[in-house]
Structures are given as C-alpha cells and as structure tokens.
C-alpha cells in the first residue's frame, strides 16, 4: 500500500505533532498508525479509501464528511458494528473490518451498566468556536458549565483552517484558524470547565425545571448531563450535489479533505477537481496545493464566483482555472474515482452538448455549502423554520439566541451558516444570555451582550452579510407573532 502522509508543509509541522506509533489490523493485516489520529485517517494514510459497501447493491463507500454526521465511514471495530471511524481514535492492536449488521454482546450489555450523572448550570453541546466561546462566557458570568463534543479534540472546523482571519484584532484578525482553536482551548482549560470529548448527545429531555442531555461516550459509556439551560452549537453538515456516481470513494465534502490534510497530515489524493467556487472552495484549492495535490480546476454553476476576490485572485495566480457556468456530470471509476466529466450549462441550468471536459483526477471535492445541524433541536421540540438565507432549516430564536423552548439556546452554524468570527460572537451572546436567564449573571452584563450585538451587526454590514441579516429578520418576526 502507498503511504500518503504529508512530510513537508509550508505552515504545519506534522512530524512533531504525531503521537506514538501503533499497529492496527485491517482485515487481519497490520497497518502503521499514530496515536491521536482517527481510524479513517490511518486507513487513508495506508492508501485504503474503500471503507465499506452498501447493503443492497454492494457499492463501495468511502469517507465523506469526516465529522461523524454521515454513514459513509461506518465499520466494525473490535467486534462492534457501526463505529464512526472518522471520529474514533486508533488504539494499539485495534481490529477493523467491513461493517457487520450484528449486535455484539458488548452493546447488548450496555443497558446493564452504571449510568454516569453530571450536574451543572449550563450544558454546551459542541466544542467548535461557538461552543467554546459560549462555555467561556457562561463560566465568566458565574455559571457552572459542562462542554461536550463528539470529536476527539476541541476546535470544530477551526482545527483544519490554515488561512488567516479577517476582521478586527479583538476578533482574531490575522490569526490562523488552527491557532485560534489552540487559544480558545487553552481558555477553556484555564477555567477548569469540565469537558467530555468523544461524547455524542443523543437526546434532550425535560424533567421539571431541569434539562437532561443523554450522551454516549466512546461508543459504550452512558452519561446523563443535568442542567437548567442548554446551548446547542452542533455546527453544520456538508451539502452535496446530484450527479452520476456521486457516492464513489474519493468524493469528499470539502471539510473532510481539510481534516485529512490539515489535522492529520494525510494527502487525500494526487489530482483534484473542486465543485463550488465560494470561499470554502477557493480556500480549499490553495490548501490542497500546500499539501502537494494538483488542482486541475474549480467548477462553479453560477455565472460568477461566490467567494472573496482576494481568495479567487490567489487561486488564479497559482494557475488553477475557475470554470463558471459549469457543472459536474458524472464521476467514473470502478472502486474509487478515476476521472470526472464536466460540462458547461445554459441559462436554464441544462448541460450544453459538445462542451464536455474530461479531468483525470482521483479526488473530487464538494464545496457547495453547509446546512445547519438541528436534529437535537427538533427532538427537543424547538420551533423550526426553513430560511434560505441561513442555509436551510433553523430554530426560531430571539435576539439573545433563545429558542421557543425556554432555556435552550443556539449559536454558530447551528443557528445559520456564517463564518467562525460570527460563531464566536454568537457563542458569547448565548453564554451570557443563558447565565442571565438563570439569574446567575449580573444585570450589568446586558451591556456586554449589546456591545457584542453591535460587533455582529458591523461584521455583517458588508455585501456577504446582507442575506444573513435578512434571514435573521425573518426569524425575529416569527418570534414577535
């Protein structure tokens, strides 16, 4: 198998951050891995992209989201089926097989085990920029806070962002996303906020004035988190686009590629095609080039690019063509991507015959946007509304980000798709607001919320923020009915 670990990178040093070398076994064969990386990353580093096969038609399945929110990477690990290998860390001697639809004895016995109960004032679900800032702000307002995240590390999308942020100095302008993640994590640690990683929230329940979050830690330990308020900052999921063979291994959401490259130092392919010329697609292009991957082209269905000019200019200087009014027709390959067929489209979004282009690539990146992760909010009974400007279905909430279920707040991409800067500002508002609603925080902190709201308004005042402002206006009008 070809080893595709990144050894040299202009920004990141993977050799120094990799943990102890261990051995895992895939179908009985030993594979070299490193502590601190996920099973999926280790398999990719060994050149294994096919992780599973569909139940009925036996079509190959590979990594797609890399954040535990789809089913493409499910495998059987140490006899336990349906393990999300994209967020499960390797352990020495671990045995990995294709997924098996049987319930092992270990899971049958789960209900007999002791349930761990943890009490706090505020439970924060999600350890990305919004969740960490919410936890920090709620703690500083006087609340006892518990923070949970299903990933093996804090930081959310920040841990894979190598570009520098825009905005004000107070909003980390000029600082790379990976560094911001470190800064916020250190702030969480300084406050001794109790953190549960590799813990998936599976339900929110009400018991009188108390709210209970049920979580499963490391696929086996059951946890009940008891609090009086909850802040949901579960982020977003990658959108996809319909085209022939869009389920082949080698087709990833943009975030999954960033995770492989920038978090675990694994090269996802040799030659790439990117679908989508928004900021994510443009940034991904030069991140791929930094990792030694050739970007053949970026295709964009719209008549013009959707991202910042500065990002597009940088990509073009690197020799990457951006094909507007183009779309991908199909991917080709037997077990994984071998080429992509692209065509120009007319004003009615139909492919124009004779304009097809063939790209010999082993990697297709889907960068067509995100949708908010609202499943927990739906389950908790929060009123949900579809707001196109915010990326899809979102929870109705007020100016302080409290939903229609009293005591449940939202922040970050869960509240509407924006940038990490706005996620942090929303997290700050939600954290302080939750503490105020519980009567814990001083009323003087209302001024801090108002100041943060002004910063948000200023950040959204540019052309890219107009649609967000309109989406929020629609939600606030819903609350006032």
What does this structure look like?
This protein has about 475 residues and is α/β, with parallel strands linked by helices. It folds into three domains: about 100 residues, Ubiquitin-like (UB roll); about 230 residues, FAD/NAD(P)-binding domain, CATH 3.50.50; about 120 residues, FAD/NAD(P)-binding domain, CATH 3.50.50. Strand 19, helix 8 and strand 20 form a beta-alpha-beta unit. It is globular and about 65 Å long. The mean pLDDT is about 95.
Concise overview:
Residues 20-102 form the 2Fe-2S ferredoxin-type domain. Keywords: Oxidoreductase. By secondary structure, this protein is α/β, with parallel strands linked by helices.
Number of domains: 3
> Uncertain spans, ≥5 residues at pLDDT below 50?
none
Q: Which word captures the global form?
A: globular
Q: Largest beta sheet: what is the strand line-up?
A: 2-1-7-5-6
Q: What portion of residues is helical?
A: 25-40%
Class by helix and strand content?
Answer: alpha/beta
Q: Determine the oligomeric state from the structure.
A: single chain
- CATH class categorisation of the largest domain: Alpha Beta
Radius of gyration: 22 Å
Kindly state the number of beta strands.
28
* CATH architecture assignment of the largest domain: 3-Layer(bba) Sandwich
GO molecular function: 2 iron, 2 sulfur cluster binding; oxidoreductase activity
Protein name: Sarcosine oxidase, subunit alpha
Keywords: Oxidoreductase
InterPro entries: 2Fe-2S-bd_N, 2Fe-2S_ferredoxin-like_sf, 2Fe-2S_ferredoxin-type, 2Fe2S_fd_BS, FAD/NAD-bd_sf, FAD/NAD-binding_dom, Metab_Enz_Cyan_OpOx_G3PDH
């Amino acid at each position: 198998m070809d080893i595709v670990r990144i050894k040299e990178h202009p920004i990141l040093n993977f050799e120094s951050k990799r943990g102890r070398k261990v051995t895992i076994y895939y179908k009985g064969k030993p594979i070299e891995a490193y502590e601190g990386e996920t099973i999926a990353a280790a398999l990719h580093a060994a050149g294994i992209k096919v992780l599973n096969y569909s139940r009925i038609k036996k079509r190959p399945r590979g990594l797609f989201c890399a954040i535990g929110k789809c089913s493409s990477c499910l495998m059987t690990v140490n006899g336990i089926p349906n393990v999300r290998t994209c967020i499960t860390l390797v352990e020495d001697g671990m045995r990995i097989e294709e997924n098996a639809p049987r319930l092992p004895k270990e899971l049958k016995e789960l209900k007999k085990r002791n349930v761990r109960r943890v009490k706090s004032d505020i439970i924060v679900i999600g350890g990305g920029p919004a969740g960490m800032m919410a936890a920090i702000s709620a703690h500083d307002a006087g609340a006892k806070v518990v923070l949970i995240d299903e990933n093996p590390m804090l930081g959310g999308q920040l841990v894979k962002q190598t570009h520098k942020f825009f905005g004000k100095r107070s909003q980390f302008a000029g600082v790379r996303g990976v560094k911001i993640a470190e800064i916020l994590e250190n702030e969480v640690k300084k406050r001794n906020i109790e953190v549960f990683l590799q813990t998936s929230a599976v339900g929110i329940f009400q018991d009188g004035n108390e709210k209970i979050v049920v979580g499963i830690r490391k696929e086996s330990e059951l946890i009940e988190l008891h609090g009086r308020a909850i802040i949901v900052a579960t982020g977003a999921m990658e959108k996809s686009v319909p085209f022939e063979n869009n389920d082949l291994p080698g087709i990833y959401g943009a975030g999954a590629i960033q995770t492989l490259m920038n978090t675990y130092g694994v090269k996802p392919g040799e030659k790439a095609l990117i679908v989508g010329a928004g900021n994510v697609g443009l940034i991904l292009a030069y991140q791929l080039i930094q990792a030694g991957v050739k970007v053949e082209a970026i295709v964009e269905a719209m008549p013009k690019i959707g991202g910042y000019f500065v990002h597009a200019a940088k990509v073009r200087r690197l020799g990457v063509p951006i094909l507007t009014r183009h779309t991908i027709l199909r991917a080709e390959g037997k077990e994984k991507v071998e080429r992509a067929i692209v065509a120009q489209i007319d004003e009615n979004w139909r492919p124009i015959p004779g304009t097809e282009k063939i790209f010999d690539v082993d990697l297709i990146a889907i960068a067509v946007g995100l949708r908010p992760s609202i499943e927990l909010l739906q389950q908790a009974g929060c009123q949900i509304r579809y707001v196109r400007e915010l990326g899809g279905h979102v929870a109705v909430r007020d100016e302080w980000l409290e939903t229609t279920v009293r005591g449940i707040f939202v922040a970050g991409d869960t509240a509407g798709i924006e940038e990490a800067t706005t996620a942090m500002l929303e997290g700050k508002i939600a954290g302080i607001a939750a503490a105020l609603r519980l009567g814990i925080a001083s009323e003087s902190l209302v001024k801090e919320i108002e100041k943060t709201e002004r910063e948000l308004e200023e950040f959204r005042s540019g052309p890219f923020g107009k649609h967000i402002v309109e989406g929020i206006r629609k939600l606030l009008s819903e609350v006032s009915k």
